[in-house]
Amino acid sequence: MNRVADVARPDAPVDGDLSRIEGAHTVRNVCRDFPEWHLGRSPYVLWALDVDFPEVRARIRRAGDHLAGLLLDGYCRQPHVTLDLCGFPSVAPEQADEFAHELLDRQCSALRTASVPAVEIEVGGLASFSSAPFLTVDDRHGHIAVLRHCLAIDGQNRLLGDYVPHVTVGLYADAWPVEAIAARFSNYAAGERLCCRVERISLMSYLPSLVGGALSCLADYELATGQMRWHRTLR
Fold first, then answer.
1. What burial class does residue 113 get, using C-beta atoms within 10 Å of its C-beta: 0-12 exposed, 13-18 middle, 19+ buried?
2. pLDDT digit string (tens) for 178-220?
3. Residue 169 and residue 127: Cα distance in Å, rounded?
4. How far apart are CA 53 and CA 110, in angstroms?
5. Which helix (H) or strand (E) holds 35?
6. How far, in whole angstroms, is CA 17 from its chain's centroid?
7. Burial level of 112, CB count in 10 A (0-12/13-18/19+)?
8. How far apart are CA 229 and CA 162, in angstroms?
9. Concatenated DSSP letters for 49-86?
């Protein structure tokens, strides 16, 4: 049985919303390795909804073209909605951003208990964080909130802060004035919202030394059957 009513559903972001940009400028992103963060560890692992559908890809491309000149080159991450972070895999975790395989077993057990059959979302127009523009996502039936509750560790998600489901378009290449961003957003016509039905959640990874690098799918958890289908070995 799903327990949607027991888990708070975040408000759907509004198309064109720039209120999540803190201050008068966006955040400048840079293409460089960040060894002070990853400490030579790899890969970095997360749970996400895979929404790499032709219609979503086309909307991402169109949004990127509309924001041409504002975004960092080389962003090639596939369309996805991040649910929660796992961190760096480790046989014997010592750091707060490391995890053992036992965590995945606990999360899958919680997912089976929740028994969410599928996730239906609507992908809309442009909005923005300080560091990145994104396509809005409406969690129509609150299922994303239920899944995040299952993935939490002792009631706490590793993806902290004010969670907003979204599909990232790219990363800002500089500290652009919000006024300049607002002008671009104001004349972007997204069209009708895209209805997406997702029947699995995916365990994904990326190389932490690459900013905006491609995602790899390690495994898929099939929501209807409760089965974890592995594609790659988790080191």
1. exposed
2. 999 999 999 998 889 999 999 999 999 999 999 999 999 999 9
3. 10
4. 28
5. helix 35-38
6. 18
7. middle
8. 31
9. EE---HHHHHHHHHHHHHTTTTB-TT--PPSEEEEEEE
Place of tokens 């993935």: 151
Q: Where are the alpha helices (DSSP H) in 95-189?
A: 101-114, 143-151, 178-186
The class level of CATH for 4-230 reads: alpha beta
Using an 8 Å Cβ cutoff, are 110 and 150 in contact? yes
Record the tokens describing residue 187, joined without a space.
Answer: 């004349």
DSSP 29: P
Alpha carbon 89 to its chain's center:
19
Q: Give, in order, the Cα–Cα distances in Å from 227 to each of 105, 108, 115, 222.
A: 11, 8, 11, 5
**Percent with pLDDT over 90 in the chain:** 86
d(CA 128, CA 135): 8
C-alpha angle 158-132-98 in degrees, rounded to nearest 5: 25
pTM for the whole thing? 0.93
Between strands 216-222 and 227-230, the pairing is antiparallel
How far is CA 65 from its chain centroid?
21
**Taking the domains of the chain in order of start, what are their residue ranges?**
4-230
